[in-house]
Amino acid sequence: MRHGLFQGVRRVVVKVGSAVLTSPKGGLDTDHIQAMADSLSRTMRAGYELVLVSSGAIAAGIRKMGLRGRPQSIPEKQAAAAVGQARLMWVYERSFSRNEIQVAQILLTRDDMANRRRFLNARNTLQTLLRWGILPVINENDSVVIEEIKFGDNDNLSALVTNLIQADLLVILTDIDGLFDADPKRHPHARLISLIEEVDERVLSAAEPTKSEVGSGGMASKLQAARTASIFGVPTVIANGKMPDMVERILAGMDVGTLVLPKEDRINSWKHWIAFSKTPAGAIMVDQGAKRMIVERGKSLLPSGIRAVLGHFGIGDSVSCLGENREEFARGLVNYSAEEVRKIQGRRTSEIESVLGYKYYDEVIHRDHLVILP
Length: 374
Description:
The chain is of the alpha/beta class and 374 residues long.
């Protein structure tokens, strides 16, 4: 199955966690990083295009500054990342240069991904680097990021990057073999789950926290990332990055790690960006009839079905669409501001101009800019 699924794979996002890159004594494990670079270089020479999403900057900074533990405050994390990022990239530069592979550093924040112009600029830069045969190394810009614009962890960032570069496969490398039916670090008889057809709430609830001292993510965040990638039609393999040739083994179709299958009814890059890269600025609550028309018949959101407007948003902002039970079922880009929507909610489209004195569109959210969430 895996051999057939990966047959047409050419562009791969590889996410490497801090626990993979660091040694038990702390700091970067340069010997392991060199072995991993040798393996990834062989993969690139075999014709694959790779993008590396790498954690490890804060962990490297902790060791370099002689700190006793992971910083807790945002300024301390930012300072550790600023120190450690230089060290991390120097190690990558040295490791890949031995294989005559050049690397390039790309630092991103959620704001970069949410802004369509910057999103496309980042895509163009990455496409150029790949065309030149250079390995992009992407990390969240921890030295300037604040809670409001954090991706949350590099697992989520790697899933967004699959859309950014339109990848064929996402590989998430961690310090365990994949998803188990219990935490293998605490339960020695835990069994590896080799295949997940869909990441639903049952699967997510089975993912016990496995966050390490040096990392910010856990198995649940890796499954969330896999679900995000699957909606874009991209499979994900969560596997043990302590084995330096793991990516080669995955691409050879070997039954390693946990494979999360892509959804058959994938959404396009534009709608994936709307659903996952932009943070909703507010919400619109609709009645059951409007929800049914959107979900079952793929229609636009009209003012007549709107029951309430929550928050403050402007034209072109992302908003959540809520049912009468206040559960989010869709996201979209609005054609009117929150103040305007409040004035026309419950009205027919023919009444928009008489209420506002003007009319931009018949639709509050056009179906081309509306995404049904799983």
